[in-house]
Amino acid sequence: MRSELPPSFLKGLESAAGHGRLLTDPADLICYGYDASGYESCPGAVILPETTNQVAEILSLASKYKVPVYPRGAGSGTTGGAVPSPAGIAVVFTAMNQILEINPGNLTARVQPGVITGHLQQAVSEFGLFYPPDPASLAFCTIGGNVNTGAGGARAVKYGVTRDYVLNLEVALASGDIITTGHATAKDVAGYDLTRLMVGSEGTLGIVTEITLRLIPAPEASGTALVFFPDASSACRGVKSFFQNRILPRCAEFFDKTSIECIEGLLPVSVPSGGAAMLLVEVDGPESSISPQLDTIIESCADSGALKVVRASNNNEAQAMWRARRGLSPAIRKLGYTGKVSEDICVPRQRLPDAISKIEEISSEFNTRIIVFGHAGDGNLHVNLLFDINDAGAVKDMEHAVDALMHMAVALSGTISGEHGIGLSKRDFMKLGTGTASLELMKGIKKIFDPDGIMNPGKVFP
């Protein structure tokens, strides 16, 4: 398979990034033709830049030749946002993976987009600092990918999402120009907030080449517990009661019955008879506050019908609980289905019981097995639809179920995506999620940034 890209364009790319940083061998291209969504399409070429100036030169060339550009981090996204096309190039940030500065006095970190999220968290912890966003894929996902999708994680209920920690960005535009958005300051109201516009834009407006992040002092201590319930409604009541009792957990993760069955062998505790729902709850703060917070949470759960509560007695037990949580998505494979679609609707916290009930109805109506888990503390549910990819009827049922799920989320005053982004998989629901006028405004913004439509085309917009 030969690249269909103009030879002069490919020669320019190699000149821009240096020898050995342009990949055109089909065996190499396959590695960058998919993400965790299941979508697949090999790029015409792959380029691995090392500097912002190289990225800018690549984009200038792409604009000249009208070649689509697909930025890519670790490929851990679940919506197809990083999947390229044969007519375009994948710009991969493996070589731009440096933590450029950690500034304890200013509580900031300056990083390149290829930095792995978990590596940054470990690095800042050595200064007694804390970077809260924690996607389940933090061991391999990148900060650049987190910024482009607006990633969240379990701790979002207390600390917010990636957008809340981005102070300023260096961005290469389609024209080849380089801009800086925002400042490394605690306050900045000089003009429009281009930083927040770029975060979550999925590479459709420009390519982020450097990120300055806000850090906070690390909490003194944390406490973790697993709580089992007889049903999902009881678990939802438990979550609601935390807030009513003025406890703001840093994590409150929900698992339905099938989720528990998938990770039962990974859990450091036994599942009680009749346990059909589970919460993984974590609190943090001063050492003296941990036990009282957990006491209140346990009492709240007991009042909501909890069957069993297990406190982690040490950090090893807490980490074992979290390993089970992070191992859930891979563990779903053992159920034997060849197809899985992962959606991440978000509804107001008080509507969680309604959402879970409606999901059960959708599963029954469209004969599609659905597993629900996720961030109950902020109403962000990961809804996994399982099916046989070779069964046309099952695929059609799944598609109808997804459609019903999206409409249900919006009807409950929620959104079609809480943290995964839109990419390819949700683009046809964008009008439902935003409304016609807002969607047209977004298209107009993209046209200003990307007049030739080369920046991650085909993503986000229907």
Kindly describe this structure.
By secondary structure, the protein is α+β, with helices and mostly antiparallel strands. It has four domains: 7-92, Uridine Diphospho-n-acetylenolpyruvylglucosamine Reductase, domain 2, CATH 3.30.43.10; 99-217, Uridine Diphospho-n-acetylenolpyruvylglucosamine Reductase, domain 3 (2-Layer Sandwich), CATH 3.30.465; 221-329, Alpha-Beta Plaits; 336-436, Alpha-Beta Plaits (2-Layer Sandwich), CATH 3.30.70.2740. 35% of the residues lie in helices and 20% in strands. It has a seven-stranded antiparallel β-sheet with strand order 15-12-14-13-17-18-16, with helices on both faces. Helix 1 (7-17) runs antiparallel to helix 3 (52-65) and helix 8 (232-244) runs antiparallel to helix 13.
Category by helix and strand content: alpha+beta
CATH architecture of the largest domain: 2-Layer Sandwich
Shape: globular
If helices are DSSP runs of H or I spanning 4 or more residues, what is the number of helices? 16
Number of domains: 4
Cα-to-Cα separation, first versus last residue: 30 Å
Largest sheet: 7 strands, antiparallel
Q: Do you know the CATH topology of the largest domain? A: Uridine Diphospho-n-acetylenolpyruvylglucosamine Reductase, domain 3
State the share of residues found in helices, binned by percent. Answer: 25-40%
- What would CATH call the class of the largest domain? Alpha Beta
Sheet with the most strands: spatial strand order: 15-12-14-13-17-18-16
How much of the sequence lies in strands comes to: 15-25%
Q: Summarize model confidence as the mean pLDDT.
A: 96
Rg: 22 Å
How many strands? 18
Low-confidence segments: none
